[in-house]
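Record now logged for everyone:
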Amino acid sequence: IGKTKSEAKDSNGKSKQQTQKSRKFIESTKWKDSEMVTNIRVNILTREAARRAEEFLKLKQWTKKKDEEEKVSNELNNQIREKWENLFETKGPFRLFKILKEQQEACKKLTENKDILINEYINELKQKEDFYVKELEREAEEIDLLLERMDQQYHTFRDTLQQEIDQIEKAYMTERTELIEKNINEINELYDIRRQKEEQYEKDKAERVEDQMKSLEALRVNDSDEYTSVKIKLEVDVQVLEQQLQQMRATYQLNTEKLEYNYQVLNKREEENIAILTSQKRKITRLSDIINVLHNKINNQDKQFNQENQSLNEDFKRISEQFKGLQKKFRHFQICNKIKFKNIWKMNEEKTHELMHKLLQADRVITEQQLGLEWKSENDDLFAVLDPLLFKNLVDDEVNPESKEDYLKKEDSIKDIISRNDSLVLKYKEKKGINAKMRKIFEMLCVELEFLVDDKLLKLLEPLDENEQALMKLDSIFKALNVNTFQDIETLATYFMENNNINLNSEYKQYNEKINNKLQLVENGNASDTVIVIKRFLHDQKRNRLIDQISESNNNNLLDDDDDFEKKLENIDKKKKNNQDNKLSNKAYEQIQKDYWERMTNIIDDKRYRLWKIVHFSMQKYNKILSERMTLAEDIKFIKEQNNELKALLRQYMNAKINDELEIPPTQIMLAQAGILKSKSPRK
């Protein structure tokens, strides 16, 4: 196979060598033939260059002659003009006749100079015409020679191409026959190798089958022996397990007897434990006395803590005064910033309005002048001026990541932490104390209603201990529930008592049952009992406020219709909110800002912008057409000028005197070709 590959490379090399050799030979013949053709062109160009140089020298000579003749004629004209002036001053006929003779001779001399120059021009024209006829003949000879050489080049190039193609084809055919013979030999060798491998595979397969049959027979024998041994072993295990079962039954009987004995022992121990309990009760009374002593110590520590609290209050007052001073400085700088912002806003707004006027002016020009349509302003409030302070809030929000409400909440929470002596829960504890039931209610409120506490306040409370955290949480929850007095705390506590309905009047019981049913339907069984009780408390508070407000009207039918009662509650809440409706909400401010920026960005809407693009594209096409027309007009003008020049030259050659001197003038040839002159008359 290695030999065949090397031989194939040699055969491919032969064909490639032949093609390269043929290509080089074709290029050389092509270059030689083209050189023969280009020699004619080179000769023409050299002759034309020499002619132009000669013409340039002649032109200089003619300009020199013309200048000299013009100088002489100007001098003669001046002399003649001066003598004519003197002629009117002369007296006497002889003198006048003499001056006229002199003038006649001067004029004759002037005309003779002109005639000499004219004759030279005429001779030069005759020479040019002779040279033109000779050039035509020479050009015809060169064209014939060029055609002859081109024909010769074509035939020689075609013959060389045919010869080289035959040589290349012959090389490829020999290469093809060699490759076919080599491939046939290679395929025969591969078939022999494949046949040998198949015979060897059959032998190996038969040997493997025989070995596997022997191994299967050996496995059958071994498995049968193993089965018998396992069967014997399992039968022995069953006998052993039956013996163990008998033993377990015996031990069970023994254990039952032991348990009965232990039961009797435990009864005796119980009697002993009762005696121990009596002794422990005596010990409890003794420990209660110790607890009373500890309570006295606690009271003393409370007094000490109150003194510390007073010192902390004085510190708080000092810090609050410093805080007020900082607030005054903050307001001062806030006013200055607002003034600066307003001035910068007005300056930028004037620039934007100027740009908007330019855009609208351009739109009006395009609509009226280019499209011929009536232009109307679609947005009349486009140049409406807004208060810049509407946008100042947005800028402040971007600069300060926390909103003003969050900042105020955080500030209030910090104040609450500092001023814990103003806590409602702390005052309630100092005046009335907190029993076990109230403590449980407060703990339940801290756990169940923790969602009413601000998240930022919870973060601030993390470094405090558990009692202070519970105290701050209760104050925040009471503020959210509008619990502001001790009476409100006790009223809320009654809702958590089991017997809270005992003291209610009979006329309110039916109403409370309806409220409870509504709350249970709202919650769908998912809310906790604490949330349901809080909702009932809030509902009763609203109801009590309504009763206080309309008690003057003596409306005794208030409790008859629950629907009217709910509507009145909603009306009172609406009246409270009417005072806040005069101010714009945050959403209204955002909407005003959004409308303003959309109005600024939509000066030219998408439809108008697409119209501008279409007009721009159409004007570009129109400009392109006009530029093409301009170039065509210039070309036509240039062609007309060339045509006029050619007509003038042709008319000059047709009217030249040299045509009469020639045996066959070019004018008769052109007229004969044009069909104007049908028969030619020989000249004598």
Notes: The two ends are 94 Å apart (CA to CA). Residues 606-684 form one domain. The chain has a mean pLDDT of 76. The CA atoms of residues 547 and 555 lie 9 Å apart.
